[in-house]
Every structure is written in structure tokens, then in C-alpha cells.
Specification:
CATH topology: Alpha-Beta Plaits
Distance between the termini: 17 Å
Low-confidence stretches: none
Radius of gyration: 13 Å
Strand order of the largest sheet: 2-3-1-4
Structural class: alpha+beta
Number of helices: 3
Shape: globular
Order of helices and strands: EHEEHHE
Number of strands: 4
CATH architecture: 2-Layer Sandwich
Mean pLDDT: 97
């Protein structure tokens, strides 16, 4: 299982616009082959920072999503709303306590 976290800093006046984009695409992302989970988080100290937390069956399935039309159109609409560069990383769970 691959964990994918993407941290995005938005222009404060663009958060509503982002939420429209997210709400229009979240169900299609959740049902994309290989996606097992999707959450949207908000930074407690920075109200214009959002993070997506998603679980993928494999790096290949995440990459297939990243090459899809769904990702391309969603990302194109989202990235113009940023106030800073996004930070994304993938990880694998080592152990659960």
C-alpha cells in the first residue's frame, strides 16, 4: 500500500474555488482503479493550507492516475489557485503501533 500526501498552499480568496473543484472530482478519484482511500485535511495553524491523504494499491496505479485525463484537468484547475509551490510525497507504512 502506498501513502500519498500532497500539501497545497492556496491564495486565501481561492479556497472556495478549490473546494468546488475538489467536490466535483473526489468521487471519481476515490473510484479510480487502485485508489483505496482519499481524505482532505486542513492545517490547524494555516487556514489556507490543505492536504490530500490518499492510499493506493501500488506506485504503478498512482502513476496511472497521474497520467489520466482526470488528474490532468483537476490539477490544471487547482494549481492556478496556489500561493506557494505544492509539496508531494509518497511513503510506505513500516509498522502500525
Amino acid at each position: 500500500m502506498l501513502i500519498r500526501i500532497v500539501r497545497m498552499t492556496f491564495q486565501p480568496d481561492k479556497l472556495d474555488e478549490f473546494m468546488v473543484i475538489f467536490n466535483q472530482s473526489k468521487d471519481r478519484i476515490r473510484t479510480f482503479p487502485g485508489c483505496r482511500h482519499l481524505e482532505l485535511l486542513q492545517d490547524i495553524d494555516k487556514p489556507n493550507v490543505r492536504m490530500t491523504y490518499s492510499l493506493w494499491e501500488s506506485a504503478d496505479e498512482l502513476e496511472a492516475y497521474r497520467q489520466s485525463e482526470l488528474f490532468r484537468t483537476t490539477w490544471a484547475a487547482t494549481k492556478v489557485l496556489f500561493a506557494d509551490k505544492p509539496v508531494a510525497f509518497s511513503a510506505e507504512k513500516i509498522t502500525e503501533l
